[in-house]
Amino acid sequence: MRFLFFTDTHIRGTIPQNRKDNFLETLFKKIREVVDIAHEEAVDVVLHGGDIFDRPDVSPSLIREFVVLIRDLKAPIYAVAGNHDIYGQNPATINRTMLGVLDSIGIVKLINPGEKIFFNDNGIKIQLTGQHYYYGLDKEGKEDGYCIKKDPGVNFAVHVVHGMLLDKPFFTGVSYTLIEDVLKTEADLTLCGHYHAGFGIINIQDKYFVNPGSLLRIDSSLSELTRIPGVILFDITNEGIKIKKRALKCALPGQEVFDRQKLEADSFREKKLAEFIQGINSAGEYNFTNIFNIIDELAKKQNLSAEVVKEALRRIGEVQETISKKDGEDLEVS
Known about the structure:
With about 325 residues, the protein is α/β, with parallel strands linked by helices. It contains seven helices and 14 strands. Strands 4-3-2-1-13-14 form a six-stranded mixed beta sheet, covered by helices on one side. Strands 5-6-7-10-12-11 form a six-stranded mixed beta sheet, with no helix packed on it. β3, α3 (about 100-105) and β4 form a beta-alpha-beta unit. The longest helix is centred in the last third of the chain and has 28 residues, at about 305-334. It is globular and about 50 Å long. This is Metallophosphoesterase.
């Protein structure tokens, strides 16, 4: 059975300041090539690692463009929700998002936590599970979102998760989970999104961990100049799992896509911001850079219950949804 995996398309109507190409044209050209690859490779199932959209309330016109591009796919699309697909990092808001609409009408099939989807191919039983992004997914010592169990009789298990799974330690202050900490999973193949640079294909203890990187390059980093986006193709047969990465032909070299002057300026600003944050951290009082980290710090310092944290996240989600709707009204008026 053949699968295609890609992640972090971040479909959006706004144009990143550091791009010098026709952003939307590039975006849809890439998705069109993914569809073509799925047909060319006779793929049975397409998997998306989350952040299909760059915001939960992306415009209906962009939804239409996306649906037009993928409606000819012969293979079904299964996906998990990324942090950009939902409000307040809360998967409970999915039914109020555009991704939730696509799921409800069967365009994209969301793999919800606890759900197990089974495929039978020539006597081989394959189990598919998924984990949406949620606040605290990569909290230290918490690997529940990555570790799954195989059902009896399952030959191979595939798990898709939108989380900060990494092969090596990252920056201080950023929550992440190391592959070495989730080796107890019974998944034969763990597919990840969220970390845009990706770490490729890693095999440890006969278990595969894969992140090809985001399909869309939007980060203001010099490393994106050399990275060529692509998709993952893998076959599951009696002989095991065979995986390969396929680069997109339509993906232009970084220097043709990014404005290098803006990238260098952004890099300088990021460096100064890092120094500023380091200065704050060295004062020993604070260690956060966004509202969710603030909640985490307060929860620790004040020993807040899980119910209180959950309610805070729910209210933040409502505020974000209200702000998004107001932005949409302003755009309509203008």
